[in-house]
């Protein structure tokens, strides 16, 4: 009757609590008087019956007769000093009466008994304010134990004692136990009970999905269970909600754990940023809000990592904040850039200001070092900006090739390929450069891409040159059969232009050999005419 609910069959705990608190005062008092009379009758029949004694004490408590309640509980305690139901009631009653020392001793005995099965029905009888008193007392006591926790085996014992107090606090608080659940979860983590800690963190997050401390705690448990991706997910969510709470948590980790988390965050954000840029759609602030929070947090954790600064710069540029990105980059790189990746960011910012040649100079260094990173940066440019950059890079590459500096030209060649969308003219230019550097395999791959394109009749001479170049590269790699096949392919489009190419190539080779054997002065007389091809190479005349 003390726990009767006015509604039909809710959950057991909810029913007891609602019956104790939501009924009208007159109804509750009437029920309590009836229960007390019944309990008194039962005690007259069996004075040793503990259940009847506790029922009478509960009825007296509901009637507000605290002194009589205290006396009844003392009688019950004298018969069974370690009875957890009696200890719990006495502790709550003493807290209500303001006797904190007595309450603390009773709670301590209750903790030592280890019997918590009785707590839920016992606490359902007491009012919300009294349960709050017990919850606050137990939580504070647990924190005091943890603050005084020594190292070693004694530390584990103290932690277990704190867990017992926190469990009492959780029982008393009911659904409002997030702080106690968080503290208990950390205690379980300290003891190595990872799955039990996970249970408490999940309990908090079910009630409060945006609890930053619970997200951080669960992330660390995931990390301890070698679940790095899940850990990164939780930290990302926490950083979006409260970076000021997350950063101190991460800075307090051991170096190995901190490195795993920070590198995981960096890799995840790099991948997310690339995905966003690949779509080609304009980015909204909400798309990059989490990335911005991660970049700023990583720098606060370890400002000496250049990669963290570059990530933040890229996010700022993706948001269109080029001036802010430039200011941060200058501070991070003071007094001078230290990597090709950093120079590339400077180059992109220069391009945004219209200095295309300087941008090409800064960006080309990354083309051969980290092409995927450069591709990601190029997605930040407009189509017209990429076209201008590709043209400037190709022009500089051609100048360097003419000057006999293929090694310096290679970066510009690769930049023109990436910025120009792998167009055939830029691929041919890089293939020429690679051939001069005797990187025949790479040159051949570029030509293969060119030969996969479909050309019109007006481009047949160029296609013949491509096949001839492919044949020379294959011959340089020692694949004579494939080289012969490429030469046959060159003859298919139009026989005469191909023959003329072979003739000119043969003349050049012969002249070079003559110069080596006779010297420059004597070889002038041996220069072969190139104004016409031999008869077998001339195109046949077809009747019109």
Automatic annotation (TrEMBL):
Family matches, as InterPro entries: TPR-like_helical_dom_sf (IPR011990), TPR_rpt (IPR019734), TTC34 (IPR042161)
Superkingdom, natural source: Eukaryota
Compositionally biased spans, kind Basic residues: 1-10
Stored Pfam families: TPR_8
Annotated spans, Disordered: 1-32
Name of this protein: Uncharacterized protein
Protein species of origin: Papio anubis
């Amino acid at each position: 009757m003390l726990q009767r609910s006015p509604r039909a069959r809710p959950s057991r705990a909810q029913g007891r609590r609602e019956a104790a608190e939501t009924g009208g005062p007159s109804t509750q008092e009437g029920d309590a008087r009836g229960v007390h009379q019944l309990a008194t009758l039962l005690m007259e029949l069996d004075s040793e019956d503990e259940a009847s004694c506790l029922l009478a004490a509960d009825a007296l408590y509901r009637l507000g007769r605290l002194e009589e309640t205290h006396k009844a509980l003392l009688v019950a305690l004298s018969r069974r000093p370690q009875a957890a139901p009696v200890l719990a009631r006495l502790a709550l009653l003493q807290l209500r009466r303001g006797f904190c020392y007595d309450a603390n001793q009773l709670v301590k005995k209750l903790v030592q008994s280890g019997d918590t099965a009785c707590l839920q029905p016992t606490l359902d009888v007491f009012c919300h304010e009294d349960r709050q008193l017990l919850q606050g007392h137990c939580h504070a006591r647990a924190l005091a134990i943890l603050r005084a926790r020594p190292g070693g085996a004694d530390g584990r014992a103290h932690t277990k004692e704190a867990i017992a107090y926190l469990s009492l606090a959780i029982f008393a608080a009911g659904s409002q136990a997030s702080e106690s659940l968080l503290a208990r979860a950390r205690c379980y983590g300290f003891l190595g009970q990872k799955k039990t800690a996970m249970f408490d963190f999940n309990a908090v997050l079910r009630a409060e999905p945006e609890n930053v401390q619970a997200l951080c705690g669960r992330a660390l448990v995931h990390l301890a269970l070698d679940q790095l991706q899940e850990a990164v997910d939780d930290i990302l969510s926490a950083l979006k909600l409260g970076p000021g709470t997350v950063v101190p948590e991460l800075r307090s980790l051991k170096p190995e754990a901190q490195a795993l988390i920070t590198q995981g965050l960096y890799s995840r954000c790099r991948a997310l940023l690339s995905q966003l840029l690949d779509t080609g759609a304009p980015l909204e602030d909400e798309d990059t809000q989490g990335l911005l929070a991660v970049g700023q947090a990583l720098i606060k954790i370890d400002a000496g990592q250049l990669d963290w600064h570059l990530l933040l710069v890229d996010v700022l540029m993706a948001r269109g904040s080029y001036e802010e990105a430039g200011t941060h980059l200058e501070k991070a790189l003071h007094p001078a850039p230290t990597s090709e990746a950093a120079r590339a960011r400077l180059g992109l910012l220069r391009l945004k200001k219209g200095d295309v040649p300087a941008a090409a100079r800064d960006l080309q260094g990354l083309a051969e070092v980290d092409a995927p990173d450069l591709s990601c940066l190029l997605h930040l440019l407009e189509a017209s900006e990429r076209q201008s950059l590709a043209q400037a890079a190709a022009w500089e590459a051609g100048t360097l090739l003419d000057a006999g500096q293929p090694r310096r030209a290679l970066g510009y060649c690769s930049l023109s390929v990436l910025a120009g969308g792998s167009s055939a003219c830029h691929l041919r230019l890089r293939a020429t450069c690679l051939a001069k550097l005797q990187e025949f395999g790479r040159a051949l791959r570029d030509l293969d891409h060119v030969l996969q394109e479909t050309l019109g009749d007006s481009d047949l001479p160029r296609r013949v040159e491509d096949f001839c170049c492919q044949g020379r590269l294959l011959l340089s790699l020692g694949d004579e059969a494939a080289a012969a096949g490429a030469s046959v392919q060159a003859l298919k489009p139009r026989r005469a232009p191909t023959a003329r190419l072979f003739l000119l190539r043969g003349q050049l080779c012969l002249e070079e050999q003559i110069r080596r054997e006779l010297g420059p002065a004597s070889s002038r007389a041996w220069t072969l005419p190139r104004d016409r091809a031999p008869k077998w190479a001339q195109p046949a005349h077809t009747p019109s």
